Every structure is written in C-alpha cells, then in structure tokens.
Amino acid sequence: MSQNVKRVLVSGGAGYIGSHVTVELIEAGYDVVVADNLSNCDMTCFEGVKKITGRNDIPFEMIDCCNAPHVEGLFSKYKIDAVIHFAAFKAVGESVAEPIKYYKNNLISFLNILDAAKNHGGCNVLFSSSATVYGETDKLPVTEESPRQPAMCSYGATKQICEDILADVVRATSAYGDTVNAGTSALGPVKGIALRYFNPIGAHPSALIGELPRGVPNNLVPYITQTAIGKRECLSIFGNDYPTPDGTCLRDYIDVVDLAKAHVAAVARMLDGKMKKNYEIFNVGTGRPVSVLELVTKFEKVNNLKLNYKFAPRREGDITAIWADTSLANKELGWKAERSLEDTLKSAWQWECHIAGK
Ligand code: UDP
Asked: Hey, how many other C-beta atoms are within 10 angstroms of the C-beta on 18?
C-alpha cells in the first residue's frame, strides 16, 4: 500500500449498500476495511466484492460495532481516514415491534464509531441516513432544508437521532483543531456528512452482489423479483386510491450503484478538504417520482415477463409521495444519478436469477 492511499472503514460493508460502496471505493483507488457482524447478511456479497474488484486482500473484520473495545481496537489497528457507517438494523415493521433493539443497536454502534474517531486524532464520518426523516410533506420535491417530521417508527427515529448526534459531535470536536493527528491516539475533530437516501434498488451489473433480504421482503423490488422467480405467489400493491395520477404511491427509486458513487464523491469531498461546513447533508435520489404501478409495469416490460400482482389495502405508515430535490448533491458533490430505471430493473432481475442459480 502506498503512503498516500487513503483508507476508508466501511461498517456494515458486507450488506446490500455497503458491498456496492466497497466496490466503488476500491475502483476509485481507496483502501477499504470492511467491518461487519453478519447479523443481517452472510459472506455472499463480500465474496462478490472480491470477485468484481479482483482483490483478495480486502481486510474483513468480524466485529459488532456495539462493542466499544472492538471498535477502539479497529481504530488502533488501522489508520482510518474516513468511516462510512452502515451497520444498523433497517426493518421498519420490526422497529415498531422492538424499539429497544433498534435504539440500542443503531445508536450505540454509531456512538462507538464517533467516540473512537474522536479519540484517534479525528476522522471524516459519513452517515447513511434516509429520506424517512422527512416524513409526509406537501412540499415536493424535498430539499435538505425541508423540515424533518416526527418519526413514524423507531427505525426512522434512529436516523434522525444519529444525524443530530453527528451534528453535535462535529460541533463539539471542532475545538480539537485540525486532523493532522489522524490515526494517532490524540483527540481530534470529527467532520461529518449525512446522505439521505431515497429508495435504493437494483444490483451491480455483474450480478455478483445485490440485496439479500432474510425472510419475506418488506421492500417493493425484492418482493417483485421474488414473485417473478416463484418464491412468492403474488405481489400486493398497497393502495390504489392515493391522490396520485394512477392511485399508487410515488417514490424516488435510486440505483444502488449510483448511490454508491455518491458515497465516493462525498468521501472525496471530505478528504480533499472541500466541505463548506464541517457537517453537511445531501439528498441522494434521482429527482424523479415513479409510481408503484409504473415500476411494476416497467419491470415486466424490460424483463419480458408477467408478474402476478393484485391491489391490496394501503399499508399502515406509508406516505403518499416523496421524491428528492437533488440539486445540492448535483452541484456540491458533482454527482448525479445516471443509470436508467430500465437498466436498474434488469439488474435487480439478473441478481435474483443469479442467487436462484438460474
Ligand atoms: N409496496 C407495495 N407492495 C410491497 C412492498 C411495497 O405496494 O410488497 C409499496 C409501498 O406501499 C410503497 C412503495 O412500494 O408505496 C415502496 O415501498 P418500500 O417498502 O420499498 O420502501 P419505502 O418507501 O416504504 O421506504
């Protein structure tokens, strides 16, 4: 490893988004350390990352970020220039049923990362947030200035709280001076970016990594692909009486590879000293609303198949419509979503076929 190569710790790097981000970071020339406790995934995607990048030497640390000494140990073992923190539980319904599990896991793991970052000379921290922080709003598309609404579930609350924790830690640690001490045991400043994702979907074009939900999927696209392959009998479209053009909900579906590239742009912004404030927030979406029915129809068309679906009652907690104003990310990160929805939906299907061995 050359002295100048920057190293990024990706917590939760074996998961769906983390694995795509690891690939893009490596392709952009960064060294990556993946930390994951495999609580919600197996090694399938990490193996896929090694194949895609041709790198067998990516360090993998099997740790639980809720274990403070283990996180400390990670920062002592490696000189870490930036952290991307994905390690968190993410099932909305489960978070309503088990709030303590969600608050404990999602908050403590992030606090441990921030504590270690601050104690080891400071660090750049990218937090994976969510458009869920905006809740239901009439003013669409949403900008980063749009007010956050009270969270509708504990999962959403953890995203809001973690954003606030990051903002506070950045403010409090700015007194520690510049990051000249990065990697040492001195106190140092934390700088932060929160990326608010809209609806990440799709898979890597290689079909070697993608989303691997455990049990019955909650999210739309895995439910579609599992129905198409015959794992599920029928897709329920939740609600066709919403005040939208075709009566189904509107969302901003962002391709996971495009999303991963936004992380690389944000990491570069932090490492190259281009931040305008020490804590910044960016929406990561396409800026384009797509209805559930449109998505289903497009999936059928581009993959040349028929999907068994029916209209069902609305799902509790769903909002009618949300999509991003992406102008800030476009301007400041020099990033925009590029992959077409057609290609994204093809990749989702290819991934499902790959894991089914077809
Ligand atoms: N949806 C659906 N059937 C499903 C799963 C989701 O009709 O089996 C709809 C859901 O009501 C929402 C959209 O698809 O309007 C996206 O839902 P998802 O759970 O993927 O993401 P969310 O926007 O809720 O975070």
From this structure: 29
Q: pLDDT digits over 242-274, tens only? A: 999 999 999 999 999 999 999 999 999 999 999
* Ligand 1 site, residue 199, Cβ cutoff 6 A: yes
Q: Is 174 in the pocket of ligand 1 (CB under 6 A)?
A: no
- Closest to 333 (Cα-Cα) out of 194, 125, 138: 194
Domains annotated for the chain, with CATH where assigned, are 7-353 (3.40.50.720)
Instruction: Supply the DSSP symbol for 174.
Output: G
pTM beyond cutoff 0.90: yes
**What distance in Å separates the CA atoms of residue 311 and residue 308, rounded to the nearest whole number?**
11
Q: Which two tokens stand for residue 199?
A: 């609806």
Is residue 315 in contact with ligand 1, taking CB distance under 6 Å? yes
Cβ pair 257, 20 in contact under 8 A: yes
What is the Cα–Cα distance from 30 to 48, expressed in whole angstroms?
18
Share of the chain above pLDDT 70, in %: 97
Is the CB of residue 220 less than 8 Å from the CB of residue 236? no
- The SS3 assignment for 253 reads strand
CA–CA separation, 313 and 101 (whole Å): 29
Residues labelled as active-site residues:
155
Can you tell me which atom of ligand 1 is nearest the CA of 314?
A: 11
Residue nearest to atom 16 of ligand 1 (CA): 220
Distance between Cα 2 and ligand 1 center (Å): 45
* Distance between CA atoms of residues 30 and 270, nearest Å: 13
DSSP 175: G
Partnered with residue 49 across adjacent β-strands are: none
| pLDDT 10s digits, 125-145 | 999 999 999 998 989 999 999
Residue whose token pair is 């391709």: 255
Sign of CA dihedral 31, 37, 43, 48: negative
What is d(CA 187, CA 185) in angstroms, rounded to the nearest whole number?
7
What is the rounded distance in angstroms from the CA atom of residue 191 to the CA atom of residue 176?
Answer: 11
